[in-house]
């Protein structure tokens, strides 16, 4: 009996390897010489990196991320998530993170898929499926990993295949995304998402305060206002906010400000002082100190290094596309 189980595991493993190889080749074809592609399928993005990357800021939205090839580190507050082709990453709320590709070469690039999740659809689906009291002990971080099963890979493959049939996308993409959402919700990691979207849960209440803070991070922080919005006491909010985000509300606000300042310096070519003022800092010295603590270098030195890295990555992607 043990032999048969091992044999079955080996067959499943071989099947997932083959599925990822086909999926990776298709994604590379759709990307061409680009590093990132926002596809014609709503909410679906494709990503490729041809080398290990330095730590970078990234604001995760509620989403499902699957690595087809390579490995990655995601740092959320004081928590670290490591995942590769064998697991998916589920994010249930908006979370500012530091990400780093750990495994990638021009010959075997890092390839991943990110699909934004429809929380309204998730809420409706939860009412349609009976999961009993599985969420009783589901309080925890708003980010979790789960196994990349054959069923999940197969559903993702069918979604990616729609890019070759654009006229089918309006009809079929929603159905396939609904299947993906179902498979995530019934997985062990799905408890995180169920806690966020179910009305009345602590996770759902904290998610409301996170959404408010995301849109008001420039303003001075008043935790009492956030507690009122979430319908929780201040101490209760602090406790569950840290559980969900691995940060206090003040740390979360700082991360939102610093991530946005980094984006402004990169995309709008702002200097450090202007970016600091734009995101709500009154002291340029405090901004520079907190920026260095989070990103490891002073603002302008960090931005210069990122631009050089991005230029090198773009050149490498173009060379990879030519070889393919």
TrEMBL record:
It comes from the Bacteria. SMART domains: HTH_ARAC. Residues 207-305 form the HTH araC/xylS-type domain. GO terms for molecular function: DNA-binding transcription factor activity; sequence-specific DNA binding. InterPro entries: Homeodomain-like_sf (IPR009057), HTH_AraC (IPR018060), Tscrpt_reg_HTH_AraC_N (IPR009594). Keywords: DNA-binding, Transcription, Transcription regulation. PANTHER family: ARAC-FAMILY TRANSCRIPTIONAL REGULATOR, TRANSCRIPTIONAL REGULATORY PROTEIN. This is AraC-like DNA-binding protein. It comes from Neorhizobium alkalisoli. The lineage of its organism: Bacteria, Pseudomonadati, Pseudomonadota, Alphaproteobacteria, Hyphomicrobiales.
